[in-house]
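User: Predict the complex with iron/sulfur cluster.
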Amino acid sequence: MDDATPPRPISPRQDWTREEAETFYAQPLMDLLFQAQSLHRQSFDPNRIQMSHLLSIKTGGCAEDCAYCAQSGRNGSQLPAAKLIEVERVLAEARRARAAGATRYCMGAAWRAPKDRDMDQLVAMVEGVKALGLETCMTLGMLEVEQAQRLRAAGLDYYNHNIDTSERFYPEVITTRTFADRLETLARVREAGIKVCAGGILGMGEGRQDRIDMLVTLATLPDHPQSVPINLLMPMPDTPLAEAEPLDPIDLVRTIALARLMMPRAQLRLSAGRSGMSDELQAMCIFAGVNSIFMGDRLLTADNPGQDADSALFARLGLSPMADPA
Ligand code: SAM
Ligand code: DTB
Ligand code: SF4
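Assistant: Here is the predicted structure with iron/sulfur cluster placed in the model:
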């Protein structure tokens, strides 16, 4: 593509190539941001943010070796393994989250995969949260076909399962399961009729091409994921990535803008890492196409800005939550 003909995104498409994506990513930032924001406005109110709430329903002692994760039993982290929590605790938290303006409730477990003996309790959590009028989301690791079908029948709206990075870089981050395993679970989720939430982490030492390739993989799935979380690595003590070189924040913004251009209708969530970001950087991410965040002062094990900081951010930027707090 020559300089005289700026690339024109046509949406939504599933035939993205690496070269085309690279052309968008490498443009002058103002051009990239303008395109992303223009497309964003065709599908979303630019001043409204969807709020999700995250709860760890089973913490620590995970069998996988994800190099970024505080919950891996294989990393040096001291986090003790807990049991799956009681349904009532999940529902009490969900009521609080709803009152604070959340519209989606995400339940995360530090598992390689759920065991069949846990399914009744998981089903009860989905049914209970759904009955509160919240959208339901779970992230439990790999799923069998029957497990996906049971969760769907219980009312599960979304399943989060991240590809995390490019296929090339993936083995440098996780060795206990493959990129293909991840795609297989995503296919089972999609085929069960559950909406797909899939994204990744930036700032793990990957290169620009890895960030682009990750988005190309997501945007060339049989359907675009309905929800795409972009996490900025939160370096956790005693993990192999504890001392990772911080990402240039402009690369975070470029990646978000590219995700918005490639998956124009997806909910794009600025997930982990907001607690280390300035209001100005968050504002740029939102301008680039973010329209969803996690609210509350905790993610799974790590800190999140919390309600006071987010209310101040929203006031400074003139944003409002998708649902008004009760
Ligand atoms: N165990 C399940 C799994 O990995 O599929 C679900 C929970 S796992 C913690 C969900 C996602 O959180 C990971 O795929 C990763 O993208 C993100 N994540 C975990 N630790 C993180 C960290 N320290 N910084 C940023 N993102 C992180
Ligand atoms: C996602 O992509 N980010 C969330 C959610 N999916 C489950 C998790 C972020 C975890 C951050 C690190 C922690 O809390 O331990
Ligand atoms: Fe386990 Fe998920 Fe953490 Fe990987 S990211 S170690 S699968 S909890």
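The domain at 29-316 is CATH 3.20.20.70 (TIM Barrel).
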